[in-house]
């Protein structure tokens, strides 16, 4: 393992050559969440619910379903982990972790999103896992969001790359599967808003598809979110996230 450096647009980044994790980013606007600390507890009182956000915690949950699905830290999770999980009860469910619709990350400013993710229980039936940047929470987020850039995975175990700027809705198979034991580093770069690049473990994927993001102003300002959703049925699924990093220029 060795640390290397590269320029991405106007930003100098340092990364580990073995797993492609960006370990330092010399960007004006930077965010890192390693899910370490008391807020990331497995206890039900860990994360506040949307509408009841708490000072000092950037995250809030949105839980849909009476079973209910869960969003919580993983007890003893090495490096700090958060987990979203559906139950097998036959009902609509959403296990969502976002920023309470506080949208602050500007896609139009050379943004890069990176997360280390494991889909530890394959989504079944109509269940779907998602992670990336979105506008406000809505029912069936991947399909209903007006503005978003994300990765998602369903029962096929294929990881898909997705974007929507309210003018062009794009989806493409990455060619990579989300194995239940596979920790992978997922990254997308919006260094050129006419052509978003998606990467998995440092390798560019879905390169034959052009993903534009033409939205500007407030519509280009999004929030990070992870979770699982099913519209109905007894499908299950679990996603674990080790870290989320986002960086971009200020202007």
Query: Major beta sheet, specifics?
Result: 8 strands, antiparallel
β-sheet strand percentage: over 45%
Q: What is the H/E string?
A: EEEEEEEEEEEHEEEEEEEE
Counting copies of identical and different chains, the oligomeric state is single chain
Strand tally is 19
Distance between termini? 35 Å
CATH class: Mainly Beta
Number of self-contained structural domains: 1
Shape, please?
globular
The CATH architecture assignment turns out to be Sandwich
Q: Can you offer a commentary on this structure?
A:
The protein is mainly beta. It has a single domain (30-248), classed as Sandwich (Jelly Rolls), CATH 2.60.120. It is built from one helix and 19 strands. The protein has one helix at residues 141-144, and strands at 3-8, 11-16, 22-25, 29-33, 60-64, 70-73, 82-86, 93-98, 105-106, 112-121, 128-134, 147-153, 158-165, 169-177, 184-189, 197-200, 203-205, 221-230, 237-248. The strands form three sheets. Strands 4, 6, 7, 10, 15, 16, 17 and 19 form an eight-stranded antiparallel sheet that branches. Strands 5, 8, 9, 11, 12, 13, 14 and 18 form an eight-stranded antiparallel sheet that branches. A hairpin with a 7-residue loop joins strand 15 and strand 16. The longest helix has 4 residues, at 141-144. The mean pLDDT is 95.
């Amino acid at each position: 393992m060795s640390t290397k450096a590269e320029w991405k647009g106007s930003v100098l980044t340092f990364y580990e050559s073995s797993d492609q994790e960006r370990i330092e980013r010399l960007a004006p606007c930077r965010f890192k969440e390693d899910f370490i600390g008391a807020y990331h507890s497995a206890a039900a009182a860990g994360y506040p619910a949307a509408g009841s956000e708490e000072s000092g915690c950037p995250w809030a949950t949105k839980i849909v379903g009476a079973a209910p699905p869960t969003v919580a830290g993983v007890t003893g999770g090495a490096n700090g982990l958060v987990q979203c999980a559906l139950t097998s009860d036959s009902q609509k469910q959403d296990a969502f972790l976002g920023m309470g619709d506080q949208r602050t990350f500007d896609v139009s400013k050379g943004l890069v999103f990176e997360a280390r993710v494991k889909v530890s229980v394959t989504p079944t039936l109509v269940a779907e896992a998602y992670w990336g940047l979105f506008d406000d929470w809505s029912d069936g987020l991947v399909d209903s969001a007006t503005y978003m850039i994300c990765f998602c995975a369903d029962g096929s175990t294929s990881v898909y790359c997705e974007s929507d700027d309210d003018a062009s809705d794009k989806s493409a198979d990455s060619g990579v599967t989300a194995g239940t034991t596979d920790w992978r580093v997922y990254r997308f770069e919006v260094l050129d808003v006419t052509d978003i690049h998606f990467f998995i473990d440092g390798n560019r994927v879905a390169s034959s598809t052009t993903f534009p993001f033409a939205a500007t102003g407030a519509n280009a300002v999004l929030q990070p979110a992870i979770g699982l959703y099913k519209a109905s049925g007894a499908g299950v699924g679990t996603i674990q996230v080790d870290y989320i990093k986002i960086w971009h220029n200020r202007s």
